[in-house]
């Protein structure tokens, strides 16, 4: 899947001539119908789009920054799972800062105002962040699958986690690279209305849409279908294992924490999948030239893109709703408090009971560190 770039069509007529009105809209977030019939030029629609994108950016910056701050600030939050959650938040921050503002302006103006460098960097950055997000969700699912289903008490080390994240970002950069390489920034002349527009669009080899279609289909598999299949299998196995697990009463608290954390992480994946599904389907239909001539193509595309971008702020909301540690941490930040003793080792795979640690007294009143 490519980021919000709707320039996969060549915009050519059967005679081989290029329609200037299509070229005008052959850009990131723009497409037929032509300039004058574009409903996104209506003031009311623009106000709604600006409000929606601004809200997504604000919530994404606030929520993901809080997640990263808590994991960095509080030692008890530095578990392997939370480390990967911070990586997920970092990828979402990349979209909020480097992608959405430029996409919104380009959608409203139909002209790329940010120069050649950002023309290549913005689609690359969004594709990079989406790849990092889905790969990180896959790694989290497989790590929990390894520990819970196979009863492996030893978690990943910090060095192993850093190495996995480095590999994740490297793989994502390689997969997103075509969107930076096969891109063109040009000034388009439209003599009929005496207008010159700066355009940023995909330009695949051989001047055809075939390569773009192959890339989109490949990304649909690598960025959506295959990872979600792996994640679904892992969480189904985890859920069955926890549901059928029989343990002494002293271990019930630990099992319940595992169930809660697994439920939260599974819901994160479900929200990600549902947010991106309409966009993926519509993008594939566009690549196959099935919907390019819809009268309100650009508006529909933009709405689906907004739904997809909601995934960038949904995760912190889910953490605050379903995880006591994040909920307490968010409240502490808003209240300007600092009470690390309110954190509990939710989601850890090996923990001693809080009661036992309190009686022991060796932690000075602080909760045990989640492993």
Automatic annotation (TrEMBL):
Q: Which PROSITE patterns match?
A: G_PROTEIN_RECEP_F1_1 (PS00237), G_PROTEIN_RECEP_F1_2 (PS50262)
- Pfam families, per database record: 7tm_1
Q: Where are the transmembrane segments?
A: 50-72, 84-109, 121-142, 162-182, 213-240, 261-279, 299-322
Q: Which InterPro entries match?
A: GPCR_Rhodpsn (IPR000276), GPCR_Rhodpsn_7TM (IPR017452), NPY2_rcpt (IPR001358), NPY_rcpt (IPR000611)
The record gives the membrane topology as: Multi-pass membrane protein
UniProt GO cellular component terms: membrane
Q: Where in the cell is it found?
A: Membrane
Q: Which UniProt keywords apply?
A: G-protein coupled receptor, Membrane, Receptor, Transducer, Transmembrane, Transmembrane helix
Family stated for the protein in its record: Belongs to the G-protein coupled receptor 1 family.
The protein's name is Neuropeptide Y receptor type 2
Species of origin reads Nothobranchius furzeri (Turquoise killifish)
């Amino acid at each position: 899947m490519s980021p919000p770039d709707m320039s996969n069509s060549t915009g050519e007529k059967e005679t081989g001539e290029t329609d200037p009105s299509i070229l005008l809209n052959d850009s990131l977030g723009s497409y037929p119908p032509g300039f004058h019939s574009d409903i996104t030029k209506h003031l009311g629609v623009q106000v709604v789009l600006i409000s929606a994108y601004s809200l997504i950016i604000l919530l994404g910056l606030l929520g993901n920054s809080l997640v990263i701050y808590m994991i960095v600030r509080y030692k008890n939050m530095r578990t392997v799972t939370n480390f990967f959650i911070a990586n997920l938040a970092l990828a979402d921050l990349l979209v909020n800062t480097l992608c959405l503002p430029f996409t919104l302006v380009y959608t409203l103006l139909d002209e790329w105002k940010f120069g050649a460098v950002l023309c290549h960097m913005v689609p690359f950055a969004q594709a990079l962040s989406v790849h990092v997000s889905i790969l990180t969700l896959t790694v989290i699912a497989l790590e929990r699958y390894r520990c819970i289903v196979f009863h492996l008490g030893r978690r990943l080390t910090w060095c192993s986690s850093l190495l996995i994240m480095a590999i994740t970002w490297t793989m994502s950069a390689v997969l997103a690279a075509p969107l930076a390489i096969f891109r063109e920034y040009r000034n388009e002349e439209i003599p009929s209305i005496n207008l010159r527009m700066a355009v940023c669009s995909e330009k695949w080899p051989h001047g055809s849409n075939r390569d773009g279609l192959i890339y989109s289909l490949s990304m649909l598999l690598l960025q959506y279908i295959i990872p979600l299949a792996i994640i679904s299998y892992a969480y189904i196995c985890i859920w069955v294992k926890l549901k059928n697990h029989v343990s002494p009463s002293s271990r019930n608290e630990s099992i319940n924490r595992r169930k809660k954390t697994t439920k939260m992480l599974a819901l994160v994946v479900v929200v990600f999948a549902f947010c991106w599904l309409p966009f993926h389907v519509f993008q594939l239909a566009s690549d196959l030239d099935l919907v390019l001539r819809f009268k309100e193509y650009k508006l529909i595309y933009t709405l689906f893109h907004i739904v997809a971008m909601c995934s960038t702020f949904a995760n912190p909301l889910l953490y605050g709703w379903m995880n006591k540690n994040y909920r307490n941490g968010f409240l502490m930040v808003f209240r300007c408090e600092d009470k690390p003793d309110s954190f509990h080792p939710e989601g850890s795979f090996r923990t001693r009971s809080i009661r036992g640690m309190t009686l022991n007294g060796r932690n000075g009143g602080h909760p045990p560190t989640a492993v």
